[in-house]
Design brief:
The protein is built from six helices and 13 strands. The chain is of the alpha/beta class and 276 residues long. The structure holds fe (ii) ion (2 copies).
Length: 276
């Protein structure tokens, strides 16, 4: 199975620039074009939160338009992040039935692919940080107990400290409780997250936790507790999780023109004309 992951789109109404700088709408369009032009079409796409910037209905309306070329071709699964609003998300995507598997949380199980997807809702309304309450953790425990199929657990807030202080202060508040549930099961191939706008990997609870970069802006790489909350326009990217004979392997796919592809071949030198 080939699963694409996108994260942290931060779409704003009327294609407004995020922070007055980032053209998130155009950058998502480019990301969708890149995904659809891949030599192998993904079997599914999961988008791990911060879909829009302020949880507004008009933002979700634009998001729906921007994602339409993708949703026409491949199943797309949406998760909320701290910038999202559950009710506005559900209202904008009435045909995405999985968003209504459980109320009030947007937490769901997708069973129709070789890899099972368990999506967790870490949103705490009004807060930038995330949490998994007892109800949400109990749901996860029940979901893992009923099937031993290879599983990806997706959530917005990563369950580990990255070293980037200002982001860690708005991280997942109860990662140890999530780890305690996951450690009881062996089928979780990966915990996939967003929120940090950078490609990051960490061993976690007997599996691997990874954070997907953004197709728009990235968080500045400053591994200090006092790091200023700055972003940078490093190359936009997304992830491709692919099952190989070695298990689940994750590739970073960049969005943009960087030259190539060129063949791995030395240039042939044309014979010099003989001197007379
Ligand atoms: Fe974000
Ligand atoms: Fe976030």
């Amino acid at each position: 199975m080939l699963l694409a992951q996108i994260s942290d789109l931060h779409i704003k109404a009327d294609r407004a620039l995020a922070y007055g700088v980032v053209d998130t709408a155009t950058m998502l369009e480019r990301c969708v074009q890149r995904l659809l032009a891949l030599p192998q079409r993904p079997d599914a796409v999961v988008i791990t939160g911060d879909l829009v910037d302020a949880g507004r209905p008009d933002e979700y309306g634009l998001l729906r338009e921007l994602l339409a070329p993708l949703t026409r071709c491949v199943p797309v699964y949406l998760l909320p992040g701290n910038h999202d609003d559950r009710a506005a998300l559900r209202a904008a995507f009435p045909d995405h039935d999985y968003l209504r598997q459980w109320e009030p949380f947007v937490q769901y199980a997708i069973e129709e692919h070789p890899l099972r997807l368990l999506a967790l809702d870490t949103v705490v309304p009004g807060e930038a940080g995330g949490a998994l309450c007892g109800q949400r953790l109990a749901w996860l425990e029940r979901a893992l107990a009923v099937s031993g199929r290879p599983t990806i657990v997706a959530l917005h807030h990563p369950p580990f400290a990255s070293g980037i202080g200002h982001m860690d202060r708005i991280g997942l508040s109860n990662a140890p409780q999530l780890a305690a549930v996951l450690r009881k099961y062996r089928q979780v191939m990966r915990v996939i997250a967003g929120h940090l706008h950078r490609p990051i990997t960490c061993a976690f609870a007997g599996t691997v936790a990874s954070v997907c970069p953004s197709p728009a802006h990235q968080v500045a790489l400053d591994l200090s507790s006092a790091a200023p909350d700055h972003f940078v326009l490093e190359p936009p990217a997304f992830y491709l999780h692919v099952q190989t004979d070695s298990g689940l392997v994750t590739h970073t796919a960049y969005v943009g023109k960087f030259g190539g592809p060129y063949p791995f071949r030395e240039p042939t030198t044309s014979p010099q004309p003989a001197k007379t």
